[in-house]
Automatic annotation (TrEMBL):
<dbReference type="Pfam" id="PF20154">
    <property type="entry name" value="LNT_N"/>
</dbReference>
<comment type="function">
    <text>Catalyzes the phospholipid dependent N-acylation of the N-terminal cysteine of apolipoprotein, the last step in lipoprotein maturation.</text>
</comment>
<feature type="transmembrane region" description="Helical">
    <location>
        <begin position="57"/>
        <end position="79"/>
    </location>
</feature>
<feature type="transmembrane region" description="Helical">
    <location>
        <begin position="201"/>
        <end position="218"/>
    </location>
</feature>
<protein>
    <recommendedName>
        <fullName>Apolipoprotein N-acyltransferase</fullName>
        <ecNumber>2.3.1.269</ecNumber>
    </recommendedName>
</protein>
<keyword id="KW-1003">Cell membrane</keyword>
<feature type="transmembrane region" description="Helical">
    <location>
        <begin position="91"/>
        <end position="116"/>
    </location>
</feature>
<comment type="similarity">
    <text>Belongs to the CN hydrolase family. Apolipoprotein N-acyltransferase subfamily.</text>
</comment>
<feature type="transmembrane region" description="Helical">
    <location>
        <begin position="123"/>
        <end position="140"/>
    </location>
</feature>
<keyword id="KW-1133">Transmembrane helix</keyword>
<feature type="transmembrane region" description="Helical">
    <location>
        <begin position="20"/>
        <end position="50"/>
    </location>
</feature>
<feature type="domain" description="CN hydrolase">
    <location>
        <begin position="237"/>
        <end position="476"/>
    </location>
</feature>
<dbReference type="InterPro" id="IPR003010">
    <property type="entry name" value="C-N_Hydrolase"/>
</dbReference>
<dbReference type="InterPro" id="IPR036526">
    <property type="entry name" value="C-N_Hydrolase_sf"/>
</dbReference>
<keyword id="KW-0808">Transferase</keyword>
<comment type="pathway">
    <text>Protein modification; lipoprotein biosynthesis (N-acyl transfer).</text>
</comment>
<feature type="transmembrane region" description="Helical">
    <location>
        <begin position="170"/>
        <end position="194"/>
    </location>
</feature>
Length: 524
């Protein structure tokens, strides 16, 4: 008798759908700012148990519902941005979060469908099934970070961002590789529930190897002496200008005055760091503003600041979101244009067909820059620049040709208030520091500004909605990490190595189980 898809959904998906959705929501609590690691086995283990014996269609639906809970709660902070201009966009807040969550949930759905298809085809069981599950999840995360410009927010690896030793393996594996190990460690306890015979000791052993390997290798890395500071003194300025007031007509002079006043506090420093679009206008076109900045930079100081820019080309100007470097003459020394633009924030995808405006104020869509580049500023170690959410992309922050000595992340998280969004954003910045072996200096308009060393440790920070400065010495870089040199090419060898180990152990246990069964039959 042929069973219809409606019958499958009603009798196979619906009974487990609520559980999958709740497990996805619980997985958010493994991430900063919560970082409850104990919920990892509960959340991902539940998903593993729910899908492992299902047909592909049902497994995909359960994976989608898990993703809907994961992204629905994990990205709930996006709704805050729609309230900045509530009269125009407020009604779109819930539909936008729901729609984005439903779209991103397709990646867990794909992972679960692929897992079940491969498991059925190869009749995979034991720890190899747990490995396959983790590999499918990590592969789907990699796709999420690349398809349609990518959105690798809240990778599973970020559950380890708040733990000094556990986040260090990202220096070798990157965040996608670390996500694989996080998911593997999370589903092995669930696999242990199903284990029979000698497999009962194999699964806990494999769990101990994964968790112990993470901790031991991480401890070894952070136990090495850090190189001495560069001796470059820096001041991060957190102006804390509300997003609703930032672009109000006539607000630019007052905003500039605020930043200059904060910059003048304390002893002189080598470099001032202002956040994304600290000056709400075309700074390079405002001679009075540049004169005031030049006066503040006398004595050899340098300013790195976010500012919009435009160039005239043809009949229409092109707009860029940039970081500009100024010295005491008021001259732009160098600059960087953001290349990973925020959909609907800095441009409207398919703008010719979608009848929707950008959420941010401005005259037109921004144009992407050419990509990561290393900036040379006189008197400073060479640096990489990342504006706002560019810092969330593993392996796409640093120029592969010329390695910088530090990363400057200028951002404006005022759009998201005091939600969990800025905390999650900070976690991404910490993981980039570990992956690249480079300090990350973060200037955020309303927080969280931070000085992060090359191990991902926060040395100094200024919290949300606080006005002030951070004075610190620029931390030194570590030697280029394996991930900095090889990027995501480290993932295939990792996958092959773990696969062979898991398959070898699983087959050895299977042969032992077969021997025990044969002996039992003969004795009977």
């Amino acid at each position: 008798m042929r069973v219809g898809s409606k019958h499958i959904i009603r009798h196979s998906v619906l009974p487990h759908g609520v559980g999958a959705f709740m497990a996805g929501a619980a997985a958010v609590l493994t991430l900063p700012p919560f970082s409850i690691l104990a919920l990892g086995p509960a959340a991902y283990g539940a998903l593993f148990l729910l899908v492992r014996d299902r047909i592909p269609l049902v497994a995909g639906a359960i994976g989608w519902l898990f993703g809907l809970g994961y992204f629905g709660f994990g990205l709930s902070w996006i709704a805050e941005s729609f309230q900045i201009e509530a009269e125009r966009f407020g009604a779109l807040a819930i539909p936008a979060v729901a729609g984005l969550s439903a779209l991103l949930a397709l990646f867990p759905a794909l992972a679960m469908t692929l897992f079940v298809l491969l498991r059925r085809r190869r009749l995979v069981g034991g720890v190899v099934a747990a490995f396959l599950f983790a590999a499918c999840w990590a592969g789907a995360e990699w796709l999420r970070g690349h398809v349609l410009t990518g959105f690798p927010w809240n990778l599973a690896a970020y559950a380890l961002a708040d733990f000094d030793a556990l986040r260090q393996p990202a220096a070798w594996l990157g965040s996608y590789g670390l996500s694989f190990l996080v998911i593997l460690a999370s589903v092995l306890p669930a696999q242990a529930i199903l284990a029979r015979g000698a497999s009962r000791w194999l699964t806990p052993l494999f769990f101990a190897l994964v968790v112990g390997g993470l901790w031991v290798s991480g401890q070894a890395r952070i136990s090495r002496p850090m190189p001495e500071s560069t001796g470059i003194s820096l001041r991060i300025v957190q102006g804390n200008v509300p997003q609703g007031a930032k672009w109000a007509p006539g607000s630019a002079p007052a905003t500039l005055t605020r930043y200059l006043r904060l910059s003048a506090q304390g002893d002189p420093v080598d470099v001032l760091l202002w956040p994304e679009t600290a000056y709400p206008g075309f700074l390079d076109e405002n001679e009075d503003a540049k004169r005031r900045i030049a006066e503040a930079l006398r004595g050899g100081r340098v300013l790195l600041t976010g500012a919009p820019d435009r160039t005239a080309r043809g009949a229409e100007p092109r707009y860029f979101n940039t970081i500009q470097a100024y010295d005491g003459s008021g001259t732009i020394l160098t600059g960087y244009a953001k290349h990973h633009l925020v959909p609907f924030g800095e441009y409207v995808p398919l703008g010719d067909w979608l009848p929707m405006d950008r959420l941010t104020a401005g005259l037109g869509d921004f144009t992407p820059g050419p990509g990561p580049r290393t900036l040379a500023v006189p008197g400073l170690p060479v640096l990489a620049a990342a504006i706002c959410y560019e810092i969330i992309f593993p392996g796409h922050v640093v120029d592969d040709e010329i390695r910088p000595d530090w990363i400057f992340n200028a951002t404006n998280d005022a759009w998201f208030g005091t939600s969990i969004g800025p905390e999650q954003h900070l976690a991404s910045a910490r993981m980039r520091a570990v992956e690249e072996g480079l300090p990350v200096i973060r200037a955020a308009n309303t927080g969280i500004s931070a000085v992060i060393d090359a191990n991902g440790t926060i040395i100094r920070a200024l919290g949300l909605e606080k006005t002030g400065i951070i004075d610190a010495s620029l931390p030194a870089a570590l030697p280029a990490t394996l991930y900095a040199r090889a990027g995501d090419w480290v993932l295939p060898p990792l996958g092959i190595a773990v696969w062979l180990l898991a398959l070898g152990l699983d087959r050895r246990v299977s042969r032992r189980n077969d021997s025990h069964r044969l002996i039992s039959r003969r004795s009977e």
